[in-house]
Specification:
This protein is α/β, with parallel strands linked by helices. It is built from eleven helices and eleven strands. The longest helix is centred in the N-terminal third of the chain and has 33 residues.
């Protein structure tokens, strides 16, 4: 390994230490239970993006044979090796927090995950109906084999691997059930008190005979792939920027697999088959000692009736400098306004953009946006401004 340059830290390893500090927020005593769970879900989302962009980019550089070193003196292959070691420790920490601490504590507070071996008769009746109406009618198994092209699976989406009885020649038989994004990850079940739920992958495993009638299922477990998203557009070569971006987004769906996550304890045959199908090395396979994709637990943090398990809400205050009854431009014509977020409300900023979208004196809006939400009022205002004939530029 190359000598690490003194006074410099590799940027990828530095980012992982940042994510570790987020995981540390899930430690006992830091926050209420549901807030701790949310922090874990955030770290899983962060790690997904890290692999999609940073690890994906490094893998491409390594494949292309570039031998350059970063400021810390590390070549791409060396960075990937150190990242791999650090991520494995991080995963162990994530799931120790989740399985050893949070799940038992949440169950004690009435938020309980139901396992296939602990379903009561009332829950069994509801589950059978859920499977019939919402799962079996939507999800479709697909046969997969080493001698046929691998089905195109979307990245970051849960999939179930099913191993059936072997072929007569002794070779393994597999089928996959892609879960997509149509079925909810958490399925609510009846409960005498609190909130009971079951994970989609556990429900599929519980009802697997319905998908494969007359077959012997030897193994049924979830897996998940992460695809490289570090694809760049040569703007100087793109005749149409919009068309070029659309091509990049389409290419992401078929880019190479940078990470394979699989349930810990998966059989060797299943593991090797998945590696062969997605072309990943041993170092890119991560056995997960708990539910895959902790981002699926975000909805639990919004459960109603468990306010005691969340931080006390702290609503922002209205700025005394802004009269909500007056046009924001009239206020700014008289004085500058300094807003302190998150202590003061962000509403004046939203109003500023919304009023600009309809103000006849506004000719153009130029704005930088960072991680806009799905229902962002700012995005809606920018769209309205463009429809009103204003020049709108957003980075």
């Amino acid at each position: 390994m190359a000598r690490v340059v003194e006074h410099y830290t590799n940027r990828q390893l530095s980012w992982l230490e940042f994510n570790q500090r987020v995981i540390d927020q899930a430690a006992p005593g830091r926050h209420p239970l549901l807030e701790r769970l949310k922090f874990l879900a955030i770290t899983a989302s962060n790690l997904d993006e890290f692999f999609m962009v940073r690890v994906g980019g490094l893998q491409l550089v390594r494949r292309e044979g570039h031998a350059g070193h970063d400021a810390a003196g590390l070549a791409p292959a060396e960075q990937l090796e150190l990242i791999n070691r650090r991520v494995r420790r991080m995963i162990a920490d994530q799931y120790a927090r989740f399985g050893d601490e949070l799940e038992p504590a949440l169950a004690a507070e009435g938020i309980r995950r139901v396992r296939p071996d602990s379903i009561d008769p009332k829950q069994e009746k509801v589950l059978a109906q859920i499977v019939e109406d919402e799962i079996y009618s939507v999800l479709t198994p697909m046969a997969v084999a080493a001698d046929i092209d691998c089905p195109l699976l979307p990245g970051s989406s849960l999939c179930i691997s099913v191993r059936l009885d072997d072929h007569p020649d002794g070779s393994p038989r597999f089928a996959w059930i892609p879960c997509g994004r149509t079925c909810p990850r958490l399925l609510t079940l009846p409960s005498d008190g609190g909130y009971a739920y079951m994970l989609l992958e556990d429900v599929i495993a519980w009802s697997i005979d319905k998908f494969f009638p007359g077959e012997t299922v030897r193994e049924c477990l979830p897996f998940r792939i992460t695809r490289n998203a570090d694809l760049s557009l040569r703007e100087d070569e793109a005749s149409d920027l919009m068309e070029g971006m659309q091509e990049i987004l389409e290419a992401r769906k078929e880019s190479h697999c940078v990470r394979l996550e699989i349930a810990e304890g998966a059989g060797e045959a299943t593991r090797r088959f998945l590696q062969q199908q997605f072309g990943v090395e041993d170092t890119d396979v991560f056995g997960i000692p708990g539910p895959l994709d902790l981002t699926g637990f975000f909805p639990l943090s919004d459960l109603t009736g468990f306010d005691q398990l969340r931080d006390t809400s702290w609503p922002p205050v209205a700025s005394p400098q802004i009269d909500p009854r007056r046009n924001i431009f009239d206020v700014l014509a008289e004085q500058g306004v300094l807003l302190c977020h998150p202590f003061e409300s962000f509403d004046p900023v939203v109003r500023f953009v919304e009023e600009a979208a309809t103000d006849p004196d506004v000719l153009a809006i130029k704005q930088t946006l960072y991680r806009a939400g799905d229902q962002s009022p700012v995005i809606a205002a920018l769209i309205e401004a463009a429809q009103n004939g204003k020049a709108v530029t957003a980075v």
